[in-house]
Amino acid sequence: MDWEDARLFLTVAREGRLLGAAKRLGINQSTLSRRLTHLERDLQTTLVVRGPQGCALTAEGQALAQRLERAEDALLEGEALFRDRSTRVSGTVRIGTPDGFGVHFLAPRLNWLATRHPDLALELVPVPRSFSLSQREADVAIIVGRPERGRAVVSRLTDYSLGLYAAQDYLAEMGAPKAPEDLAAHRLVGYVEDLLYARTLDYAAEFFGALPPRIAISSALGQFEAVRAGAGVGVLHDYIARKEAGLVRLMPEISVRRSYWLAYHESQRAIHRVQAVVSFIKAAVAREPGWVIDGSGGPGAQASAARPSQTR
Questions:
Q1: In this predicted structure, which of 53-67, 81-95, 158-172, 237-251 has the lowest mean pLDDT?
Q2: Domain spanning 160-257, CATH class
Q3: Would you say the CATH fold of 160-257 matches that of 3-83?
Q4: How many Cβ atoms from other residues are within 10 Å of residue 197's Cβ?
């Protein structure tokens, strides 16, 4: 079995589509398809069933992908033995994050890392979803809530708090809710419930109770923009919303806390470029004040959790 063909197959297995795999590899889709067929002929088996909705692995394909991932881990660990002889950081690191953390916090700070390590290429993927470290969807992942056990190195990055916000213009028209039961008279902005990838993201229920959002948006930044534009009352990240002069924090005694966790695959433990990114993220978070807002509306070490008893 040719290792290069095996590497191409592993990328197809992770992407689930020939087109996506070809773009990631930087080759033509027809070339990738031909190489995949060559590998199947060499092994005398079918690894992938190709269809209009993407590529599905056969049982043989799944078994091979698992073994190739272990082989890839061993190669990366071997590569690290020689990379660590130099302090030069090079190569590509993909960072997967929730959209609020990635766009609002991390993206504006990447200039420092890129300037310090000119041979380092950074890929930031800030989308509202989870990332598979074993399938190499990300080299470093920021996750809401402690990830499930697996072959990952995990550390708690920071706690953060969320509170109720509305724009000044909206409140001038609709009035400000003073208690949870007042929310029934307001337009609520929240998540698209069936698109939540983790139950820890269902924090709107802790504020709204059984009241459904009138406007549902599948990303934290989308909700922020809607609330800032006067769409209604929403649950926003305090570390994002507190810097927006046009937003008012409502019922500050009601707050919830969540945690960001940083994770990377254990095979990346000795990869110098990954560790440089991990150290940068940890240091950047440690320097930032105001991740948690207390009941008075200012930075603090405590946040109280309260859930309204409001029913529909």
A1: 81-95
A2: alpha beta
A3: no
A4: 12
